[in-house]
Design brief:
The complex is a heterodimer. Chain A is mostly helical. Chain A has 16 helices and no strands. Chain A has a single domain, classed as MetI-like fold. Chain A is flat and about 85 Å long. Chain B is an alpha+beta fold. In chain B, 37% of the residues lie in helices and 21% in strands. Chain B is built from 31 helices and 44 strands. In chain B, the strands form eleven sheets. In chain B, strands 32, 33, 34, 37, 38, 39, 40, 43 and 44 form a nine-stranded mixed sheet that branches. In chain B, strands 1, 2, 3, 5, 14, 15 and 17 form a seven-stranded antiparallel sheet that branches. Chain B folds into five domains: 200 residues, Galactose-binding domain-like (Jelly Rolls, Sandwich), CATH 2.60.120; 200 residues, Sandwich (Jelly Rolls); 115 residues; 197 residues, D-Maltodextrin-Binding Protein, domain 2 (3-Layer(aba) Sandwich); 101 residues, no CATH class. The chains are: A mainly alpha, B alpha+beta. Chains A and B meet through helix 8 of A and helix 1, helix 14 and helix 29 of B.
Chain lengths: 316, 1061
Amino acid sequence: MSEKTETAKRAVNRKDMTKWQWTLREMKNNKTAYFLMAPFYIIFFTFTVLPVILSIFFSFTDFNMLEAPNLIWFDNYIRLFLDDDIFLLAVKNTLVFASITGPGSYLLSLVLAWFINELPPKIRAIMTLIFYAPSISGNVYLVWTYIFSADAHGLLNGTMMNLGLISTPIAFLKDTDYIMPIVILVALWTSLGTSFLTFIAGFQVVDRSLYEAAAVDGVKNRWQELWFITLPYMRPQMLFGAVMAITQSFGFGAVITGLVGFPSPDYCAHTIMHHLEDYGNTRFEMGYASTIAVVLFFLMVGSNVLVRKVLGKVGK
Amino acid sequence: MFKKFLSKSLAMLLAVLTAVSCTGLPVFALDFESSEPDDSDGVAATESQSKLEKIRELLSANTYTDYTLLHGGAVPGTDDVTIDAASYNEEKTTAKVIVDKYLGEDAVLIPETGDVTWDFEVNATGRYHIAITYAPIVTYDADGNGTIDEKDLRGNGAVAERSLLLDDTYPFSQSRYIEMPRIWSEQAQGETNERGFVLDNDGNEIKPNKVEDPEWRTINASDSTGYITEPFLYYIEAGHHTLTLGEVQEVVAIRSIRLYYDGSLLSYAEYLKENDGKPAVSAAETVKIEAEQPYRTSSNIIYPTYDRSSAATSPHSAYNIYLNTIGGTKWQTVGQWIDWTVTVPEDGYYHITPRFNQSFAEGMYVTRQIAIDGVVPFREAEALRFKYDDDWQLKPLTDGVEENGQERALKFYLTKGTHHLEMQVTLGTMADVLTEVEQSLAKINEYYLQILMLTGSDPDEYRDYGFTRLIPETIKGLDSEAKRLYAISAKLEEINGTKGSDSITLDNVALLLERMASDEDLIAPSFSKLKDYIGSLGTWIMTARNQPLEFDYILLYPADAANGDDATFLKKEGYRGEASFWSATGYEFQQFFMSWVSDYSSYGVRTTSGDDFARIEVWTTSGRDQSTIVRSLISDSFTQQYNVAVDLKLVAVGSLLPATLSGSGPDVNLALASATVINYAIRSAVIPISPSGYVDQEGDSEEVKAHNAKCREIFADYDNVMTWFADAATIPMQLYGVAYGLPQTEHFSMLFYRSDILVKLGLDIPETWDDVYNMLPTLQTNNLQFGYHESLAGLLILLYQRGERLYKDARADDPDGTTYGMQINLDSNTSLETFKDLCEMYTMYGFPYSYNFVNRFRTGEMPIGVAQYTIYSQLTIFAPELRGLWGFTLLPGTPEKDENGNDVLDENGDRVINHTADTTITGVVMMRGCEEIEAAWNFMKWWCSADIQANYGQEYYALLGASGQYATANKDALFSMSWTADERAELLNQFENHLQATPEMPGGYIVTRYVEFAFLRAYNKDEDPVEAMLSYIDTINAELSRKRSEFGLVTLEEYEASHDA
């Protein structure tokens, strides 16, 4: 009781102090919270925030990784948008790729999670593992290189030749006609990752009594149940899933490289990630690569904002 | 109604399927066609024909087994003939031999090439052993001028091999390879401790150098693969004969050759009976021989090693490194021996008890043969068994026969005085098994080929090929091979006592063969499986052939002293296989604490002035095994020689860049790809290593000038060092006359061919690309292929053969040559034509685009093809069944033309053919910020020198086996590896005369990329290759210009602008 009165006595008016003084005071009061947050924050800042800031800085220089950078202001941006055909191609590829695999994997996760949720618990656990496994098994997508191998002894070529459908092997992973569909297929296969698990968890936390109430209120079928109750109820999970799906779809560079090599024939599966890698690793033009990274960063931020807007409409 | 519809649609579907499969089916031949060798090429073809001639001979040759079947009934020879080597038949001898005193005896010194023939008379018909008294030659100064030059004899460090012919024919095929190993001993460099080892600053024992220490030794002509454990018996009729030692590899001195037969070896029981009644000894001191101090060894990779795993190893220390063991995986190949000397205190029977480690061949035993003073005392001593155990073992020598529930300890009768104990790797009872499996494998391979030629590599499961009608013998053969493998598997089970994984491998193959033989319809579906199984059989043979064994020490004590219980006796004497629990724990603890304070990087440093020595840091990205070898080479050789401590770090690929960026990089980095070297160089992250990189510029400060002068001095021997490598190897490490790296590895392609298949098809080894095109129809009718590189790799070979370069030459008015590399040359007429030819190989001539060369070569699907020469060792090891049935030679070439389009002829009237191959290099570089430039430069030179590279190659090979082919860039090191004379000649020819490298230029990565794009467009989309290539030229040039302007080099646009004006 006495403590409380003491605090009350000391209470000061916010208007009496500058913003800085106020912040400092608040921090002092909540120092335990700051202390607890510190380990994560320091690591997060050093390895996530700082690199982003640094790459924004480097995007204005001609940094080549081995010698001191010179400031060249907007040259990199000008070149990127006005003088780099392959970047435009990469943007196109990325958008095509992301707009198919992003929503694709999202819907796939959602629908599969919904179906699996209907199964008895034991079978559900097994099915979950089967669908989730590809995304945690590292480079397991490389099994597709065997399936689509250009070798006459490759799985698909071998089978088709046995059936007499083709007489010479097709270089699936080196032929611009086949590459994009194949990488999209593989990306969808590996993409049932974290968001899929979240959905399954989300379906299970929906309050059962709501369904009964809804039935009384006149919900007629499962679709309405899904749309008016389940989905709005698990909006946080959906948002998380969407963010994951979008980010993932921008970062499938490694899968594509693993399948079709780097760079892909005629740049037909060259994404912004690849373009970044090309300039960063092969050409040692870190400044330019940073520029690409910055553009990619804002592209991702933008698409996240868009996704939030769209998800806000769910159930309305 | 519905039924009708169903049957109708089914019929429709069938019809469509039939139609489709008819059009799409691969062409197949009912019987393989053979065309007569094309003789129209005249002189040029003779060489390859003679090569194939040899193969034909080999294919028809008898094996030793056939030979003994034929002559096994003959009586043992009663005569004893000794041929004095000096009295050779001068008329028939083709080698330029030298008769002289060698190691104190009259002998014939035989150079690597040419045959030597002797005449001899035998008075009694019978079967004879042939014993050769030989000595290896290190160097021999033939003209006595005190230096070793071309006219003198010089060994390459490899095992000497000769073929043995009687009356100008090979009696049997194994007589083609008679091995005469080199003889090595250890030589300590400096003051030694009482154990004969030199100590470093910290008191660690340093590995002594292995030096060749030739002496006269007598060997019986026997099987070099070890499959026949007994020495060969040659059937010789009474009368006059000739004996020829034919060239295979290496120089060798021969003193005499003896034909004799001394009766079979005694059995152990007979041996005991014979020594009955001789003086016996009951209580003499136990004699201990430290195995790491042998008298001689047969190989330079058998040297003292250290074991720190056991507290019972003698001697051991947690603080210092003691070289306390010998052998292990370095002592595992048939024929390798170690010779120890021992002083026996009294006459009598002794047990010989080694402390050994056989944790290598799981569930099996390894075999050794013991000879005392060069004589195997009894038959059982030919196959001593060492059983598998995780721990070190201390057990008397045994032949594995059980007495009273345990393996009996063999007794050896030794007289007082000094004796030689020689332990040699043999295959023992595994020899028969291996012979059988290998023969079976050869047969299966043959059947495989017959089916392959009928069906192609991917047979149609649903098709009736009519195997029983077309190849009835093959079907029968499959069945008998199945039976044979089952029998071998049973035998193996009997030998090892249990059914191990070995037997199961054999059973699996047998089951498959049985099924294929019993049901014709199963042949096509099982065909690809058969191929896999052939592979696993080959691998099985490889592993079963290795017999690794590590020795710590050997004890010698009276047989009676042990009183039938050796274990108790030894424990009482204080010798144990494994340390007791407490002493082992104590030792481990000590080691653990010592690991905090020991400075492993300075192991081997010996200076008088204490800690005053230079230190450099070296990074390597190779595997852990490789880095261990480098580590030990450094401490055994470099550190001792230069007194420079080397901190060798094994780092992840890709860490060099960030480390250099943050200034914590190494001084020297090993094996960096040439493109990376130049990439780093133009960004000044690696420093020049040629004096040309240290030219004073105007306006340099005094300090810089002094530094330049110092560096010019350090790197003054650069030109000299570069003579160690092929000329081509220096190109990719240079940029405009300044060198940035020493070549470490070098890869290039050669033409591999399966001679057995080519002979069968009546084809010759192609010499030009036209020959290749001519042989394609025959190959393809038999479902066989030719393998070649696609994209840039394939293009460069063809370009260089036509005398074209990848970049346009430096402009005439540019004295520095810095305009080279500013414009691509792929738009020249020749280049475009070449590119078109390359694409047509794939689009018109049906070369396969994607394939696994080793597999297809082995199975015969691709009997000829261009591949990296390092494939050689993979084939040697993984395809033992093909030994002698394949070879490699110069790439198919392009005849040189003069300006009128006629062939250019050399002085003999032969066409001049350009066989150039493209080569790729990795190099050793010195990084920016290196302070000990001189020490680092010494290290780089040391590492790239012939001795070290050869050593590394051998160690690597011994450790990793097949995958361990090390493609060194050092000329001498490459040729000191074990090649046969033929192989060496081919390799040398390609290496020295027909090699070209692609210079690395700023922006060069763009070329690889667009050439592949263009190639793929032509291959996948049937686009015109010329159009496809031309569409990328501007982009390539633009990228080159962009990169060049980044580094302040003159670009194409700038050059043209300045010359227009």
